[in-house]
Every structure is written in structure tokens, then in C-alpha cells.
Amino acid sequence: MSLHAPAPSADLSAAADKDQPLREDIRLLGRLLGDTVREQEGGEAFTAVETIRQIAVRFARDQEPAARDELAAILNGLPRDTMLSVVRAFTYFLHFANIAEDQHHIRRRRTHEIAGSEAREGSLAYALERLAEAGVGGEALAEALGHALVSPVLTAHPTEVSRKSILHCQREVARLLDTRDRVAMTPEEAADNDAALRAAVLTLWRTRMLRPNRLAVVDEVKNGISYYDDTFFAELPRLYCQFEDQLKSRFPEQSWDLPNFFRIGSWIGGDRDGNPFVTADILKEALRLQSSAALDFYLDEIHALGADLPLSQMLLPVSAELAALADRSPDRSPHRADEAYRRALTGIYARLAATSESLDRHPPLRHAVAESAPYDSSAALVADLQVLAASLAAHGAGLLARGRLRRLIRAVQVFGFHLAPIDLRQNSDVHERSVAELLALAGRLPSVEAYSALDEAARIALLAEEIASPRPLYSPYLAYSEETAGELAIFFAARELKARYGDAALPNCIISKTDGASDLLEVALLAKEAGLLIPGAQPKLAVNIIPLFETIDDLRRSAPVMASLFALPAYRALVAARGEEQEVMLGYSDSNKDGGFLTSGWELYKAEIDLTRVFAAAGVRLRLFHGRGGSVGRGGGPSYQAILAQPAGAVSGQIRITEQGEVIASKYANPEVGRRNLEILAAATLEATLTDHENRVEPARPYHAVLDRLSQLAFAAYRGLVYETPGFTTYFRESTPVSEIANLNIGSRPASRKKSEAIEDLRAIPWVFSWAQCRLMLPGWYGFGSAVEAWLGEHPEGREAGLATLRKMYRNWPFFRTLLSNMDMVLAKSDIAIASRYAELVTDAELRASIFGRIKVEWERTRELLLAIEEQAELLADNPLLKRSIRNRFPYMDPLNHLQVELLHRHRAGETDERIRRGIHLTINGVAAGLRNSG
């Protein structure tokens, strides 16, 4: 007996053939896991796991109340050591199901490509076909790419509960499965593969799943860098090369040398908002580690190129430029006297090794043949590599330049010597206090408190005057508070690091909680004090100053705030100094926590429309930075549909999107999955820029009034529950594992902005993560059912006419369809019966009955009305892949949720056994693995 995927239901039988390899992989991994449990923990633990599995599957399939009662009785009676084994077994099975599904996606994609199937949605080939159908030619495409920017930005937001050691073992399992799929193995090879899989499963079983200590920021930096080693170094250059080749094939009359429009960004080591552990020293170390990783990769590739290009000048002539490059090399070996390419590469290696020493105090593993002068920029390294490529092309060996050398040139162009641009982020309140102190200590104001007493107009006038003045406010001879000294140190470090690693290393300053024009001017003043802004008739500004609008009110003010800034000569000159481009960041997470799912989505959409209009009137190019989380409750959902659902004109060739928490691993830990996700971002951005996807079927504008009213009604329902119901904070904290999540060692940043129990002060990440753990997913749907019910009741032509309007909106308006599709996914992942078990943790029976009763009624109403609008009988009717995934994994999540409730009950009753605390944290890990995008 072994863990395996449940048998397919009748409605999924049509897909059974193509899904058979997936089922076989799940069975294989489940069998190996079961064997490992039996061998390592004994027959009693294995029998418990297998019995629980069978009952859980039976309950999930048939919804038998007797099966649920039987399951509860077994789980509640487990000895503590056996309980931990059960939790770990079910958690690992969910991880294995994720691995098998990822491999199946790769398998299906390869099958389509081998069969020569039509280009699939989300691919660059598909995007080029859609653009051709829309009449977009090569010149228009080249122009769009000339100013394009697509940038996923990795953050360290704490919802990644898996250790890197666990992820490494899981990648080994994925690699071995991939080998079985692609290679016809001999019996001996198959046996070796089986043994290696067994060893990987055993290693996982005996590897600690939880971290004993909280991560430091430097640990988070190293974790982020690991995705370059796993995926980005190899796959991003490949994606560029693939796209260039597709463009050359489709538009052979044009010359295609793509600009570096696709870059990976990072917040890790620069995001200070609420994280006191991010300091100037940490920022310096983050860039040093990043740079070392980039240079190590380049050194390895140059070493490998030496083996790839053992070309003799006696057989292949070289250009004069290459000959000169080889002659400058310190390589004087007589054995390579006629191998100009190798000698040139030896010289490049020596210079790059010297660069690593001088920039990062990081000696390479392989020593250079002799000392050499370091490169002063990554552009100089690119120039040398291009000499090799040009010489090969000029002498009939261009094919040799199209592999590793071509990809390396692109990698250096994209990653430079800094690897990834790090954004600096801080809360506007901190900037305000720092500026107030600078002004007071310099004698510009009588006291620190005087600045906060100024109204917005007076602040703007004062700040504009100071920004234009060449006189600094800062003095090294004055004593500043620890907070202000820390902020100034960051800006001074940024100037130093830009000089060291190049301007691209630290291009952005993001202001959290922006609610007025003075917030941006305060950052401009801090930049001036550090030499990042040089005043004058044509000022020079070395960073982009980026507002982050987060709450519902802030989103509504975003366009007026930007209009007021563009009308201010002092700020307008700074925009001109940055090439007439301005980035604006929109916060999905906090706006959702503030106003609920529907209102957040709608206010974000309207803000984009208003910002697009304001920027067009000012003649400034708008770049939107979408602060999305992994879950729908934090703006998540499929990236392709989300980008295409943006209002017309909002993308405009440039987009940045945060990649957060466990989503980073699910998207980018596997190289092939990673390249597919990178390709989706690029393809969707091109389609959204060059086609009017929003109005493709019919104009969307007439629907706006409907969404306005629905949003008002949903906002009232959501706020009425979360912020206006007495005792709701208590209900939330007792019915979810939010307190236990705060004690998980999954990130360096505290869970709350300040010491407070208020939901307003809780970060959006633990808010959403907690609701996901209890399977209620409240931030992803609450308020929609009440809003639709009330709106249908108000409709002047009656309920059926109103429902017909909503159905038409769903069919014809991409934004509304994406909104509802995401809600469909959330409701499918929720389970009201399991959520009721968590509600039992609330000690006040009256409060429990009142609030959970409201939530349950709203859940049922929302589900019913969503299906009515979609004209479907069940959730996920249009998403068979996710439906299959849920069917495979959810029977194994239910026992974890049940055990989590039982353990929370014991823990909160005062039981101090360390195994209980560890069991809670293990169940959190398992449920997160089963949901995949929970935070």
C-alpha cells in the first residue's frame, strides 16, 4: 500500500490518457515515500499514515459524514511522535505532488512543441501571431521594444516556509523524474534512477523541515541569489536568444539586436519598510554578494569557452582586433601560441578575476595565469567578448558564436557587475521624521515638531526651496537621532555603491504609504543631501523617486497627487532629469486588507486609468509597478491574464511586478518552469502594449458604472465585517494561526508594523496567509455575494436583467472576467467545513456563532452568484488543470488542517511539549505546500 493520487472522476476521464504519466509519477513518489516511512518509522506509523490516507480520500470523494468522524477519531488519538510522522508524510506528499505537476507541465509543453502544435497562449510565438493579426509590423514592434522594460522583482516577504535545503532535495527529485521522462533507460540505468530517487526521498525524510532560527537579511539575500544559479543565469539569456531568432524569422528584412528590456530586480537588502535589520552595511553586503555571484558565473563561463574554442590560427584566420586582444593577454604558454581565441579568453579571465578582487574582495576559485588590470565596467567586458564573436562571424565560423558566447554576452549586458538592481524602500513617515530633524538642526525650522505642524502647501514650498539650494542641511558635526542617522547612511551608501557598481545597481527609491506630493519631495531632499541630486537650472538626479499608493484612499488620490507634482517646476525638472519617465507603484495587498477584494481590484483599475490620463497630459511616460502577492487576496493570480486585463494604455511597454514568498520557488526553482514564467511576462506585456485587449469585443466604459456600484456595496459589506464588527479582531486571532505564523522563522521582517493587535497595523502578508491556512481565504472573496445580491435588487429592470448584464460583462470585459476567475480559484481552494473547525477555537461561543455564521452565509451567497454569472454548475469549470490539481492534493491537506486545529487547541490550552509547537509549524508548511500560493 502506498500514497497515490485519487482515481479520476467521470468528468475528468477525457483527460485521463494525457494525464496518465502524471498519475504514474504521483504513484511512484507516493510509493517511495510510503516505503521510507515504513523503513524509517516502523509499521505502526506507516499503518497510521495509510489508514488516514484512505479515509481522507474516501471523505473527499464521497463526503461521507461517517468518514469524517472516523478520521477525526483517529487523528485525535495519535501518539505525539506518530502524529509528527503523519504530518511530515502528508506534507511531503503535497510537495511531491507539486513536483510531479511541474514536470507534467514541462512534459505537455514539450509534447506540443514536438508535435508542431499551434503556438500556445502566453508564449512569445503566440504573442507575435496576435500582433500580426492586429496589423502590428516589425517597425512598430521594434519601436515598442526600444523603450520596453519587463521586470519581475524578487522580494523577501515572509511566506516561503521551505528551507533551501529542502528545495535543493526537491530539485533533485524533479531532475530524476525528468530523466525518466526523456531518456529510454537500460535496466541498469533504470535501477540507478530508482535508487537515486529512493535516496533523495530518504534524504528529505531525514532533513529538518523547519528553521531553528529566524532568517537574517543576508540569508535572504543568499536565498534570492540562488535562483540565479538555478534559473536566471541560464534561462534569461536563452529567452533573449529565442525571441531574437523568432523576430529574425518573422521579419527577415530587419536587423534584430534586442535591447536589454527584460531584467530581474530585487528588494532584498534594500527594503527597510518595517524591517530594522536592513541597514547601510547590509545594503553594501547585499550588493557585494550579488556582484560576486555574477562574476563567479562569468568566470565559469569564460573558462568553459576556453574548452569550446580551441581554434588554431593555422586553420581559422582571426581579426586584427582579436589578434590584439590575444597579444595583450598574460598567457605566454607556447602550447597556445596559435590559439588566439584561447589566449584572448585567458586574458579576459585574468582581468575579470582582478575585477572580482577589487570590487568584492572575492578571489575566484580558479586563479588567473597572471595579474591583470580589472575592468572598469561591464560594458568593457562585453566589448571584449564581442571582439571574439565578430572575429568568428567574419571568418565563416559564426555558428560557434551562437551558443555559449552569445548567451554570455547577453548575460553580462543584462546582469552587469551588480547582478540585479536593488530598490530602496522606506515608509513615508520615516522620511518625514528624518527631514524634520535635518531642517530643525540646520536652523531652517525652530524645532522638529514645527515641520509636522506645516500644512501640505507650506511643506511643498519649503521642500522645493531646499531642493533647489546647493547648500546642504546635513553636517557631520551634528548629532542626529539613530533613525535619521540610519536613513542618511542608506543614502550615502547608495551614492558610494552606484559609483562602485554602476548607476543600474541602485536605480529606485520607493516611498511606502505615499499620500501627498511632499512625500516625494522629502526623498528628493534626502537624495540631495547625499549627492544623489545635484541642484541647478537642469538638475541631475541619480535615482527614480517612486510613490507607492497602498490604501483605498491613497489609490483614489494617486492621480491628483501626480498631477500636482507635474505642475510643480521643481519636481517637473527632476522628471526631465530622469528622461521624462516616472514610475508609480500600486499596492495590491494593503488595498485589499483595507477595502476588500472587489473594491481593491476596482480602485486599482481606476487609478491606472486616471494616472494614464494625467501622465499623457503632462507628456511623461508612465511605468507601473504592481505590488502583487502570490495569493488572490494580495493581487495574485495568473500573470498573463492579469497583464492583459489592465486598462488600455496602462502598460505602455513597461511593467514591473513583485514576485513574493513561496511564489518565487514555485515559479523559478525549476529552470524550465522558470523560463516559461519569464516568457509569459514578456509576451503579455507586448500584447497589452500593442493591442487593445480591453476593448477587443466591445467598449468597456459602459460597464464602469456597474462596477462602481458593486464596489460601493462590497466595500460596505467587507468593512462592516472586518473593521466595524465588535470582537472581529479577537475572532481573527483565535480562529487562525496568525500568532503561530509570526513565530515561524520564515523571514527577517516582523509580522506587524508596530506593537499592536489592530488589523490596521498587521501586515497584509500574515493577514492573507492566516486566512489561507484555515481554508477560508476570506480576503479573496468576501463582500462579493452581498454586493451582487444588493445590486440585483436595485436593478430597475429586475433581477434577471441585472444578471444578464453581469453575464455579458463576464463574457466581454477581460478585467471583470479575470476578477471573477481569480475568485473562482479562491473559492475552489476554500473549504467551509474545515473553516468551521477553526472557528471552534474561538473561546467566546456567542462571538464564534455570530461571526462565523455571517461568513458562512456570505461564502454560500458568493459561490451561488459567481456560478450564476459564469453560467456554470461547479467551480473551475473553465480551469481543468487546477481542478485536477485540487483533486490530487486536497485529500492530503484535510488531515493536516484537522491536526493543525487539534494542535492549536492543545498549544493554546497551555501544553508546552515542544513536539506540539513543531507539529503546528509543520502543518503550516504542509498546508502552504498544498495551496501553493497562500501568501
What does the model show?
The protein has 935 residues and is mainly α. An eight-stranded parallel sheet has the order 2-1-10-9-8-7-4-3. Strands 5-6 form a two-stranded antiparallel ribbon. Strand 5 and strand 6 form a beta hairpin. Residues 10-16 have low confidence and may be disordered.
Q: How would you concisely characterize the structure shown here?
A:
With 935 residues, this protein is mainly alpha-helical. Helix content is 63%, strand content 5%.
- Give the averaged pLDDT, no decimals: 92
- Structural class estimated from helices and strands: mainly alpha
Low-confidence stretches: 10-16
Tell me the number of helical segments per DSSP (H or I, 4 or more residues long): 37
Return Rg in Å. Answer: 29 Å
Large-scale geometry: globular
Terminal CA distance reads: 34 Å
Strand content: 5-15%
Please outline the helices and strands.
Layout: H1 16-41, H2 43-62, H3 65-76, H4 80-114, H5 124-133, H6 138-146, E1 149-154, H7 164-182, H8 187-205, H9 217-250, E2 265-266, H10 280-308, H11 320-327, H12 340-360, H13 378-394, H14 404-415, E3 424-427, H15 428-441, H16 448-453, H17 456-468, H18 482-501, E4 508-512, H19 517-529, E5 533-534, E6 540-541, E7 544-549, H20 552-566, H21 569-577, E8 581-587, H22 588-595, H23 597-618, E9 621-627, H24 639-644, E10 654-659, H25 662-668, H26 671-690, H27 704-722, H28 728-735, H29 738-742, H30 764-773, H31 784-794, H32 799-812, H33 814-829, H34 832-839, H35 845-870, H36 880-908, H37 914-931
Parallel strand pairs: 1-2, 1-10, 3-4, 4-7, 7-8, 8-9, 9-10
Antiparallel strand pairs: 5-6
